Amino acid sequence: MNDATPIDSASLDSAAATGIGHSACPHDCPSTCALEVELLSRNRIGRVRGDPANSYTAGVICAKVARYSERINHPDRLLKPLVRSGAKGEGRWKEASFDVALDLIAEKFELAEARFGPETVWLNYYAGTMGLVQRDGIHRLRHAKGYSNQFDSFCTNMAWTGFAMGAGAMRGSDPREMAKSDCVVIWGTNAVSTQVNVMTHAMRARKQRGAKIVVIDIYDTPTMKQADIKVLLKPGTDGAFACAVMHVLFREGLADRDYLNKFSDDPAGLESHLQDRTPEWAEAICGVPVAEIEAFARLVGTTRRTFFRLGYGFTRQRNGAVNMHAALSLAVVTGSYQYEGGGAFHSNSDLFRLDKSLLEGRKNFDPGRRWLDQSKIGRVLTGEADALNGGPPVTAMMIQNTNPANVAPEQRKVIEGLMREDLFLAVHEQFITDTARLADVVLPATMFLEHDDIYRGGGHQHIVLGPRLVDPPEGPKPNHYVIEELGKRLGVAGKEGFGLSERQHIDVMLKKRELGDFDSFKADKWADVQVDFETAHFLTGFGHRGGKYRFRPDWTGTPAANKPPKRMGPQGPVAQLPEFPDHVELIESADAEHPFRLATSPSRSFLNSTFAETPSSKAKEKRPELLIHPDDAAGLGIADGDKVRLGNSRGEVAMPARLDAGQRQGVVIHEGLWPNSAFEGGEGINTLTGADSCAPYGGAAFHDTRVWVKKD
User: Helix, strand, or coil here: 492?
Assistant: First the structure.
């Protein structure tokens, strides 16, 4: 545990000297950084810094969170409940009290339930906050009322599934061990922009050990610009590259056969399978020259302390589960798990073990209730039978912690559905987002420093407390307050989990985990729950029965962190999944009509749609742009700065072109989730992305889209 300076907002006033409070970043990032916050008064903050005492954060946070005072004090922040007074989407509102707004929501929910049954109500949420109380408490109301269940298919599924297929558990080498590596392979993550702490430890290895940093990605990201060795893939071809590397490792005697025989299921079968997965075969698929494939194989095959840091890029591809499994297999073929500073890491989600059953009211959970796939929200709201999954139309919704009108795929369908006159929509938000603009009722929400919560981030091993440090403005209320108040109005306040404060729920989780209580944890700031070296490196066996790493996955039978419920079953084209690591053409491949592959990649200054409202972030990003290879642009008569239009069967959008040779020809990149209003016609980039399920356990492939491009 660690020393801290506990400070309560109640002890501060506008005349008090500046103090330091301690918290955790709440945003949808694997780092959930431990923070030091300057407290200028009981309701104002100054600078936000990474906590240097936290061994993973190590004093470093991203620039967008460092500027958080700009967001919390933003003049456009929502401060009063609003009730629609004009047509949907028109932007005409009248202010109301919280009681009036909550009464209206409860009334509309009860009317909808009386007509269609409780499954007509959808409490839609996601990870706008990673705090367990403010994010996951929505399930308490869902389960108590018997509303539709939600299948959370954004963000993690393909990567988590691919990792679990091989390793059988969601953990890996301690990510702090990157600093002790001789080769750090950063694969499928633009860490400079999205997980800055990865770079902290990788750069330490370079400075102190002379380690090589290898970056594998689909374009020349800010992370790739920091690399010693760049591997530039075509989107969705990671599996081909990984297989060719393993081919070379076996061919040149660099595979650790003793380790493979002890810890893997079928190394001989894998070697036989890889006989024709040559570098020449892979080059034709992934675009990486044979010499570069062989050089990378020799580097990782002769550098025992090679650390494979595998990111969430895998979960944006239709074949992402297969690609993650293939990439992970490299750490097994090389035997790098045996060494400190070696092995592979994606997420430590299995380590935290905080019991949320009371918080979520799990005693009232009914898995037989209808499940709605969040990725298919457009199909659900436009009444497609398959998406409705055997239940009634959705006629009442409340949305917390997400902005589906902007972030969900098949945007035209999403907005068409949200605009239905027979749909009642309540949104609990901090700003008038694209989704809030379409609501019937908008409730103002607190920000993370204005309420109590507790955090865990899969990118490291710390459970971090986020106590309330400042008072919110008059008006905004926490998510927890809204759920509790609706529970009272809807007649379920006596059911499991209701009636407790945020701190009481945190006490329950901490005590069950034997980590003290809110007050003792506040003094410590966080708990490091890292397991021992042998367990983290799977030297006592992998997570599957029998302890073997599985080169031959059971694609539909293996437990995974977010496996679809039985009522939904396996997802996507599972029959096409391979027996061994491989390349499978499950991607949305380019064709004659759509000759380009589009990736909608993260930007440095936005986090999904968050921070797109802050002036400094908008100034850094400037405008939506399409990165296109100069040779592709020349063939289309496009000059730098020209307006281009890109589209497919789902729709089209327009934006300026920026010529950039940082990706393979035939690949175009759009960075950041800009508000829809930033685009001509008010349609955002997710107009183009698809919502079809990815094999085997679902997910949305945001970086896997074929398009045509033309000069406008």
Answer: coil
Q: What phi, psi does 486 have (nearest 5°)?
A: -65, -35
**For residue 5, what pLDDT band results from cuts at 50, 70 and 90?**
very low
Neighbour-count burial for 83-122, b at 16+ CB within 10 Å, e otherwise: bbeeebbeeebeebebeebbebbbebbbebbeebebbbbb
> Which amino acid would we find at residue 450?
E
Helix axes 479-489 and 138-145, enclosed angle (nearest 10): 20
pLDDT, position 13: 39
Q: What strand order describes the sheet that includes 44-50? A: 19-24, 34-41, 44-50
Distance between CA 236 and CA 579 in Å, rounded?
18
* 176 in Cβ contact with 201 (< 8 Å): yes
Answer yes or no: are the C-beta atoms of 424 and 396 closer than 8 Å. yes
| pLDDT confidence band for 12 (50 / 70 / 90) | very low
Residues 6+ apart with CB under 8 A from 259: 332, 335, 337, 338
Give Rg (Cα) of the chain. 25
Taking CB atoms within 8 Å and a gap of at least 24, the contacts of 288-296 are 288/231, 288/232, 288/233, 288/241, 292/231, 293/241, 293/244, 293/245, 293/248, 294/248, 295/229, 296/214, 296/229, 296/231, 296/245
pTM of the model: 0.96
Q: Which helix (H) or strand (E) holds 407?
A: helix 404-407
Separation between Cα atoms, residue 592 and residue 419, nearest integer Å: 35
SS3 track for 334-373 = CCHHHCCCCEEECCCHHHCCCCCHHHHCHHHCCCCCCEEE
Q: How far is CA 405 from CA 379, 439, 622, 708, in A?
A: 13, 11, 22, 23
Nearest residue to 567 via CA among 704, 380, 370, 381: 370
Q: State how far the Cα of 700 lies from the Cα of 154, in Å rounded to an integer.
A: 6
d(CA 457, CA 473): 28
C-beta of residue 444 within 8 angstroms of C-beta of residue 501 = no
Angstrom distance (rounded) from CA 326 to CA 329: 5
Cβ atoms 7, 35 nearer than 8 A = no
Contact predicate 238/187, CB 8 Å: yes
Token pair, residue 577, equals 């999944």
**Residues shown for the chain:** 712
Q: Half-sphere exposure of residue 515, counting CA atoms within 13 Å on the CB side?
A: 27
CA atoms of 403 and 439, how far apart (whole Å)? 11
Assess contact for 118 and 501: CB atoms under 8 A.
no
In this predicted structure, what is the pLDDT of residue 253?
Answer: 98
Instruction: Report the C-alpha gap between 91 and 707 in whole angstroms.
Output: 32
Q: Cα(424)–Cα(406) distance, rounded to whole angstroms?
A: 19
pLDDT in tens, 669-693: 999 999 999 999 999 999 999 999 9
